TrEMBL record:
<keyword id="KW-0479">Metal-binding</keyword>
<keyword id="KW-0863">Zinc-finger</keyword>
<dbReference type="InterPro" id="IPR011993">
    <property type="entry name" value="PH-like_dom_sf"/>
</dbReference>
<dbReference type="GO" id="GO:0005783">
    <property type="term" value="C:endoplasmic reticulum"/>
</dbReference>
<feature type="compositionally biased region" description="Polar residues">
    <location>
        <begin position="222"/>
        <end position="236"/>
    </location>
</feature>
<dbReference type="Pfam" id="PF01363">
    <property type="entry name" value="FYVE"/>
</dbReference>
<dbReference type="GO" id="GO:0008333">
    <property type="term" value="P:endosome to lysosome transport"/>
</dbReference>
<keyword id="KW-0472">Membrane</keyword>
<comment type="function">
    <text>May play a role in early endosome fusion upstream of RAB5, hence regulating receptor trafficking and fluid-phase transport. Enhances cellular sensitivity to TNF-induced apoptosis.</text>
</comment>
<feature type="compositionally biased region" description="Acidic residues">
    <location>
        <begin position="238"/>
        <end position="249"/>
    </location>
</feature>
<keyword id="KW-0967">Endosome</keyword>
<keyword id="KW-0813">Transport</keyword>
<dbReference type="InterPro" id="IPR013083">
    <property type="entry name" value="Znf_RING/FYVE/PHD"/>
</dbReference>
<protein>
    <recommendedName>
        <fullName>Pleckstrin homology domain-containing family F member 2</fullName>
    </recommendedName>
</protein>
<dbReference type="GO" id="GO:0007032">
    <property type="term" value="P:endosome organization"/>
</dbReference>
<dbReference type="GO" id="GO:0031901">
    <property type="term" value="C:early endosome membrane"/>
</dbReference>
<keyword id="KW-0256">Endoplasmic reticulum</keyword>
Length: 249
């Protein structure tokens, strides 16, 4: 069905409408073979608080942006190649329901649908698109994913030293490897994580020691353990332009 729609006028028209909604600041989305599978509003758990974002699922990419005028204007366009995506369901907790993680080597975050049915449809369509892409390319699923950041609100003290209290002066920072909220002294070092940046990025002392000795698996498993123990505390994005004041820290 996707192949049949690829060159249809209806599909071309739909993609053109999406392009126009993002305006000149957005990247062109019309390329041969690309099909718009579906679209909708999902709640994205940003650094400070959950926010509504408009998502568009194509057969090869996932696009989302901030809603300026519903169905008419969006900004801050983000494009995620689906070949690098894996998704994991999130258990319902409090007001955060019908959610799943979208994980990639450069960025990982949580989104929530309005209903369980909508969640199921999104996850099924994403998985189908990823499976079809990998089947055509012969590639294997990505096994490297960026950490999901712990929200600012979940940490009143540094998650590494357990001593430094966060204040307007003593700012919160995030380790790019484990996603923990840490103080400045516990995250003074930098390490090159090629999938996330071409320059060395801030990481905590714990992850630096593990990475420096080549024990990357241990570092990753530690992060996974912390997630399973406290799923709510890790549901955050790597950085949203309007939510992440210290994305360079």
């Amino acid at each position: 069905m996707v192949d049949r729609l690829a060159n249809s006028e209806a599909n071309t028209r739909r993609i053109s409408i999406v392009e126009n909604c993002f305006g000149a600041a957005g990247q062109p989305l019309t390329i041969p073979g690309r099909v718009l599978i579906g679209e909708g509003v999902l709640t994205k758990l940003c650094r400070k608080k959950p926010k509504a974002r408009q998502f568009f699922l194509f057969n090869d990419i996932l696009v989302y942006g901030n809603i300026v005028i519903q169905k008419k204007k969006y900004n801050k366009q983000h494009i995620i190649p689906l070949e690098n995506v894996t998704i994991d369901s999130i258990q319902d907790e409090g007001d955060l329901r019908n959610g799943w993680l979208i994980k990639t080597p450069t960025k990982s975050f949580a989104v929530y649908a309005a209903t369980a049915t909508e969640k199921s449809e999104w996850m099924n369509h994403i998985n189908k698109c990823v499976s079809d892409l990998l089947s055509k390319s012969g590639k294997t699923p990505s096994n490297e994913h960026a950490a999901v950041w712990v929200p600012d609100s979940e940490a009143t003290v540094c998650m590494r030293c357990q001593k430094a209290k966060f204040t307007p002066v003593n700012r919160r920072h995030h380790c790019r490897k484990c996603g923990f909220v840490v103080c400045g002294p516990c995250s003074e070092k930098r390490f090159l994580l090629p999938s996330q940046s071409s320059k060395p990025v801030r990481i905590c002392d714990f992850c630096y020691d593990l990475l420096s000795t080549g024990e990357m698996t241990a570092c990753q498993s530690t992060r996974s353990d912390s997630y399973s123990q406290s799923p709510k505390s890790t549901l955050n994005d790597v950085s949203d332009d309007d939510d992440d004041e210290d994305s360079s820290d």
